[in-house]
UniProtKB/TrEMBL annotation, chain A:
Domain of life per record: Eukaryota
Keyword Repressor: no
Region of interest (Disordered), residue spans: 1-20
InterPro entries: TIM22 (IPR039175)
Protein name: Mitochondrial import inner membrane translocase subunit TIM22
Species of provenance: Rhizodiscina lignyota
Location of this chain's protein in the cell: Mitochondrion inner membrane
GO BP term, example: protein insertion into mitochondrial inner membrane
Automatic annotation (TrEMBL), chain B:
A GO cellular-component term linked to this record: mitochondrial inner membrane
Gene Ontology molecular function terms on file: metal ion binding
Cell compartments where the protein resides: Mitochondrion inner membrane
Domain-related comment: The twin CX3C motif contains 4 conserved Cys residues that form 2 disulfide bonds in the mitochondrial intermembrane space.
Domain Tim10-like per the UniProt entry, residue ranges: 10-72
One Gene Ontology term from the biological process aspect of the record: protein insertion into mitochondrial inner membrane
Protein name per its UniProtKB record: Mitochondrial import inner membrane translocase subunit
Membrane topology: Peripheral membrane protein
Function: Mitochondrial intermembrane chaperone that participates in the import and insertion of some multi-pass transmembrane proteins into the mitochondrial inner membrane. Also required for the transfer of beta-barrel precursors from the TOM complex to the sorting and assembly machinery (SAM complex) of the outer membrane. Acts as a chaperone-like protein that protects the hydrophobic precursors from aggregation and guide them through the mitochondrial intermembrane space. Mitochondrial intermembrane chaperone that participates in the import and insertion of multi-pass transmembrane proteins into the mitochondrial inner membrane. Also required for the transfer of beta-barrel precursors from the TOM complex to the sorting and assembly machinery (SAM complex) of the outer membrane. Acts as a chaperone-like protein that protects the hydrophobic precursors from aggregation and guide them through the mitochondrial intermembrane space.
């Protein structure tokens, strides 16, 4: 149909006539995959994985800075639970030192990775859900998601810590979103 | 019952196409005005816009349906 008033339907009808069945099927599958990529679940998973990776690197970096604090375990002479004559870590052979040091780095890195991954997943999931309910795209989505994330992270430390976490994270998210959404230099005109 | 002639069928098809095309134009204009703000930065629809458009199109058709039911009721009464 070559009617200018219906470009959408005309395009679909014309496309159906030119492509084979298999190509139509492939296009449908591609469209479903793309729609799935933009769903809230996929965004949550991706943010969680990215947060995990970032947190891992951050934890690795942080643990490498802590060369002067005693490592956990019975091999520290100043450990009050073990007043026996156990050697300090610096007296161990090099391989043992390396092993203990790497184990400590891995533990710190893993705990930091879990923390960051959880933050990313919860924030992204709640923001996407709130945006889906409100059908509006402004910075209040991020603020509410930040409040919920901060509260969820501090849930074991009581209601005051939850309120503090909510306020802090919401303020942080509001600041970042406000900066990202600053209008460009040029003046905006209305589209329609 | 006399069957409609081909000229009548063509006329009916033309009227239908005009009606459908008019409805499509109204639908896109009103839903775009409602759902798409004028300060966007990317060409893809974000989640809020696509959800809003889904709801807007469904509501438009439901409104259409209800209004046409009422109108048919009115026409039937007269």
């Amino acid at each position: 149909m070559n009617i200018p008033g219906m470009p959408g339907m005309g395009g679909a009808a014309g496309g159906g006539g030119n492509l084979s069945d298999q190509q139509l099927q492939e296009q449908k599958v591609i469209k479903y995959i793309q729609a799935g990529m933009e769903s809230c679940a996929a965004k949550t998973v991706m943010a969680g994985v990215a947060g995990f990776a970032l947190g891992g690197m951050f934890g690795l970096f942080m643990s490498s800075m802590r060369y002067d604090t005693p490592l956990s375990g019975p091999l520290n002479a100043s450990n009050p639970l073990n007043p026996a004559n156990t050697p300090d870590i610096s007296t161990l052979p090099m391989r043992q030192q390396l092993r203990l040091g790497l184990r400590d780095m891995a533990k710190t890195s893993y705990s930091s990775a879990k923390n960051f991954g959880l933050i990313g997943a919860i924030f992204s999931g709640t923001e996407c859900t709130i945006e889906g309910f409100r059908a509006k795209n402004d910075l209040w989505n991020g603020v509410s998601a930040g409040c919920l994330t901060g509260g969820a992270l501090a849930v074991k430390a009581g209601p005051q810590a939850m309120a503090l976490g909510c306020g802090g994270f919401a303020a942080f998210s509001a600041a970042i979103d406000w900066y990202m959404r600053l209008p460009e230099e040029e003046r905006r005109k209305n589209v329609i | 019952r006399p069957q409609p002639t081909s000229a009548e069928k063509i006329a009916a098809a033309e009227i239908e196409i005009e009606m459908v095309s008019d409805m499509f134009t109204r639908l896109t204009q009103s839903c775009a005005k409602k759902c798409i703000q004028n300060d966007y930065r990317e060409s893809d629809l974000n989640k809020a816009e696509s959800v809003c458009l889904d709801r807007c199109v469904s509501k438009f058709f439901e409104v259409n349906l209800k209004v046409s039911e009422k109108m048919q009721g009115e026409a039937g009464r007269r």
